[in-house]
Amino acid sequence: MKKNRFYIYNNAPITILFVAICVLALALDSITAGRSTVLVFSTYGSSWLSPMTYVRLFCHVFGHGGVQHLISNMLYILLLGPILEEKYHDRLITVILTTALVTGVFHNILQPHVMMVGASGVVFAFILLASITGKEKGIPITLILVAALWLGQEIYNGITTSDNISQITHIIGGLSGAALGLFFKNNK
Predict the structure, then answer these.
(1) For 104-144, what is each residue's pLDDT tens digit?
(2) Domain map of the chain by residue range?
(3) End-to-end Cα separation, the chain, in angstroms
(4) Please, which residues have CB within 8 angstroms of residue 126's CB and are 6 or more apart in sequence?
(5) Phi, psi dihedral angles at 43 (to 5 degrees)
(6) pLDDT tens figures, 22-63
């Protein structure tokens, strides 16, 4: 008779790799007194002729402003990532990279003098991507409801609060996730 054995397995390799890179980026930030974040793990207006500008457009999602910032983003990533990996498999890498690029470009154009770090755009892409479920083509009502509530909150926060949070990045990240989810859903 075979005994049931308890074991730990990796149910979401892309998600775990993303989280590991984010933790490593924060550790490097601490070791280098912030220089690695400025050089690699953030984005800001810089010369479009510099190769590092393009590296930062993708890598800014790995950098974070501190442990609390990292934990709050990674909780969402770890919650939603495995569900999305099960549904979208390797296409989740496309979601992460596209969201990083689109939010980075918009940020550099709209706020070139502000340095941006963090995975918030990816978090919001995951939130809207997760709301696109079902086998039918078209736009699910859950996406409409989540997008309406979430966009309303982000617009309200953008108007009424003055903080270091980039609501435009949240909005663009969420729209990227929704657009990619609808594309994946309707082009199987």
Answers:
(1) 999 999 889 999 999 999 999 998 898 886 677 777 788 78
(2) 13-186
(3) 43
(4) 76, 77, 80, 81, 84, 95, 177
(5) -135, 150
(6) 999 999 999 999 999 999 999 999 999 999 999 999 999 999
pLDDT score of 48? 92
Is residue 22 within 8 A of residue 74, CB to CB? The reply is yes
Q: Which of 3.10.20.90, 1.20.1540.10, 3.40.50.720, 1.10.275.10 would CATH assign to domain 13-186?
A: 1.20.1540.10
Using CA atoms, how far apart are residues 35 and 47, in angstroms rounded to an integer? 18
Q: Are the C-beta atoms of 81 and 15 separated by less than 8 Å?
A: yes
pTM, full prediction: 0.87
Does residue 82 contact residue 35 with C-beta atoms inside 8 Å?
A: no
| Cα gap 184→137, rounded to integer Å | 10
Report in angstroms the alpha-carbon separations of 48 from 36, 62, 83, 105, 118: 20, 21, 36, 11, 21
**Residue 145, CA atoms < 13 Å, CB-side half-sphere:** 6
User: Under DSSP, is residue 64 helix (H, G, I), strand (E, B) or coil?
Assistant: coil
Assess contact for 42 and 56: CB atoms under 8 A. yes
